[in-house]
């Protein structure tokens, strides 16, 4: 009997631990107007640390071990940024500010194989920063205006960008020769900005910031197979839920979060959040979404079962880019 009880207790503890792994972590938020990065305990909403960044920090990514954050310092107004802040999330301290030289307006960020991919909007290109050597070791031009956001697959063999001014998406693919890359331009609607890949890797959804639509790109044929007219005023970010069932889109000018059923491609909900909702982050557990409401100075925590705001976390002025630190 004692052995049976011991086995049951061990099984229960393992189950609890496994369940907890999906929800544990810290929320990392950038405040554009404050030029700060804050780390937050997502359960309590308590700010654990605050670090100064460069001017106009827009996007952030975190290393796989959760120890280091990389921040794209985009700049403000007529003062274009040209640095990436490297921040120790344990000590809450900027380790270094890497100077990108002639590359200006770094914005979108993505991590792959320990390296940081970023867009240099003013230079119409994507580049890669290697933290281990503290150097840019690769770059590739898009030839497109407003190369803004970027996503990269796990091995770094495919890179996707949204080009706001050219109304296109770029798909870069590495050939057998690591120096040989191919580029495919996919025309979409006006002002593509926020985009995401479906969890099954079959589709790319791009929200148009200027015409209220969303383009659905089939990644097999690299063509637009559907356009969804959501009549948004100014779409800003788009994210799939981890199970691929829902797509969340922030409408910056309308102050709303738009929820779309991915299978039917129909809108299911519009949730009023306040002035200027921008960045969206969905943790691995998929039960909630964090939405940065820049005009209100807080992050709204949205319950993805009830589609209600469960909490608001005050972070600073102009919250936007977010990341999850395990």
Strand and helix layout:
Elements: H1 2-21, E1 26-31, E2 36-40, E3 47-52, E4 57-62, E5 68-76, E6 79-88, E7 93-99, E8 106-112, E9 115-120, E10 125-130, E11 135-141, E12 147-152, E13 158-163, E14 168-174, E15 181-187, E16 192-197, E17 203-208, E18 213-218, E19 223-229, E20 235-240, E21 246-251, E22 256-261, E23 266-272, E24 277-281, E25 288-293, E26 298-303, E27 308-314, E28 319-325
Antiparallel strand pairs: 1-2, 1-28, 2-3, 4-5, 5-6, 6-7, 8-9, 9-10, 10-11, 12-13, 13-14, 14-15, 16-17, 17-18, 18-19, 20-21, 21-22, 22-23, 24-25, 25-26, 26-27
> Roughly what percent helix?
under 10%
Total E-strand runs: 28
Q: How many H/I helices?
A: 1
How can the largest sheet be summarized? 4 strands, antiparallel
Structural class: mainly beta
Low-confidence parts lasting 5 or more residues at pLDDT below 50?
1-22
Please provide the ordered H/E string of secondary-structure elements.
Answer: HEEEEEEEEEEEEEEEEEEEEEEEEEEEE
Give a description of the structure.
This protein is mainly beta. It has one helix and 28 strands. The protein has one helix at 2-21, and strands at residues 26-31, 36-40, 47-52, 57-62, 68-76, 79-88, 93-99, 106-112, 115-120, 125-130, 135-141, 147-152, 158-163, 168-174, 181-187, 192-197, 203-208, 213-218, 223-229, 235-240, 246-251, 256-261, 266-272, 277-281, 288-293, 298-303, 308-314, 319-325. Strands 3-2-1-28 form a four-stranded antiparallel β-sheet, with no helix packed on it. A four-stranded antiparallel β-sheet has the order 4-5-6-7, with no helix packed on it. Strands 8-9-10-11 form a four-stranded antiparallel β-sheet, with no helix packed on it. The longest helix is centred in the first third of the chain and has 20 residues, at 2-21. The two termini are 39 Å apart. Mean pLDDT is 93; it is low at 1-22.
């Amino acid at each position: 009997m004692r052995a049976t009880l011991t086995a049951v207790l061990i099984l229960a503890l393992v189950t609890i631990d496994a369940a907890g792994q999906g929800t544990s972590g810290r929320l990392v938020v950038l405040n554009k107007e404050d030029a700060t990065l804050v780390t937050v305990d997502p359960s309590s909403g308590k700010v654990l640390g605050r670090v100064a960044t460069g001017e106009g920090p827009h996007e952030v990514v975190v290393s796989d071990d959760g120890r280091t954050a990389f921040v794209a310092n985009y700049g403000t107004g007529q003062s274009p940024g040209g640095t990436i802040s490297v921040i120790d999330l344990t000590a809450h301290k900027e380790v270094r500010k890497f100077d990108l030289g002639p590359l200006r307006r770094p914005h979108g960020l993505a991590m792959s194989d320990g390296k940081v991919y970023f867009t240099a909007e003013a230079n119409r290109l994507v580049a890669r920063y290697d933290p281990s050597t503290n150097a840019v070791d690769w770059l590739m031009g898009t030839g497109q205006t407003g190369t803004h956001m970027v996503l990269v697959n796990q091995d770094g063999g495919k890179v996707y960008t949204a080009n706001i001014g050219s109304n296109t998406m770029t798909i870069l693919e590495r050939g057998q020769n690591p120096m040989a890359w191919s580029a495919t331009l996919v025309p979409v609607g006006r002002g593509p900005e926020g985009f995401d890949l479906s969890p099954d890797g079959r589709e790319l959804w791009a929200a148009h910031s200027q015409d209220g639509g969303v383009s659905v790109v089939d990644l097999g044929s690299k063509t637009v197979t559907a356009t969804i007219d959501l009549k948004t005023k100014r779409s800003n970010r788009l994210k799939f839920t981890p199970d691929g069932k829902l797509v969340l889109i922030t409408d910056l000018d309308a102050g709303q979060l738009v929820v779309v059923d991915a299978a039917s491609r129909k809108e299911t909900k519009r949730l009023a959040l306040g002035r200027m909702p921008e960045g969206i982050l969905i943790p691995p557990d998929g039960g909630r979404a964090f939405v940065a409401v820049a005009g209100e100075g807080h992050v709204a925590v949205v319950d993805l079962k009830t589609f209600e705001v469960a909490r608001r976390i005050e972070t600073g002025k102009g919250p936007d880019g977010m990341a999850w630190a395990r």
